[in-house]
Amino acid sequence: MIVSACVFVIIVTALFVYQSFTAPYSTKAAETDKIDVSIEPLQTAKIDTIIPVLMLSGSKYSITPKAKYQISGMLVSKRHYLRGYMKHLSPYDYALIWGDVPQYLEFLKFDQIVRFCLFKYKPGLPISVEYVGNHLSNNHLIPATKNIRKALGKPKRKDLITLHGYLVKVYGQDKKGRTTTWNSSMNRTDDGNGACEIIYVTRLRINDDIFE
Q: Of 169, 144, 175, 148, which is closest to residue 60 (Cα–Cα)?
């Protein structure tokens, strides 16, 4: 069930390639600081925070923080978006599970399609479908730094992830003047269109590696 003088040009080009493909830098978490995927996401009233307007590939994005947010979970699916209006702003989605759900992956299969996450389950699943839905989130990730942007493609399925940042509302305008609005969900129990979390990510942890 599915619930881009010659020498100067060469030097500049080489520098561009180097900067584009260098690996993101990270720090290591303390050995005693383990990611706990059993805990619920932490959402608190936003502090006075201003996120700079972003200009990406001719489009302008105004981002309003709605709440401070932190979520730890197991990555069950990752999707890299190369098309669509928000591809430059939010190049990746992470589908994360937490609570008791990571214990029952043998009964579950997850897939991401067009900014949605779907799951299938096998008979005998020891927890309710409702519980799974309430402990699964599809997160649209907006990297706050170039380093975080480089790191977004690194994790693999079953890696443990912690995201720090803000749930946000986005107002976008492209170079032709067309506009769109993207609004984050503010709770974990909704589903369907509008239920995904849109996170301005200020800190990304993948297992024991921290990217800022």
A: 175
State residue 13's pLDDT score.
37
What number of helices (H) and strands (E) belong to the chain? 3, 12
Rounded Cα distance, 212 and 195, in Å: 27
Token pair belonging to 179: 């506009």
- 196, 115 in Cβ contact below 8 A? yes
Report field, pTM of the whole predicted structure over 0.90: no
Q: pLDDT, tens digit, for every residue of 86-102?
A: 899 999 999 999 999 99
1 falls within a domain:
no
22 domain residue, yes or no? yes
* Range(s) of the domain holding residue 175: 6-211
Count of domains observed in the chain: 1
Is residue 124 included in any domain, yes or no?
yes
pLDDT bucket at 175, cuts 50 / 70 / 90: confident
Q: Is residue 174 part of a domain?
A: yes
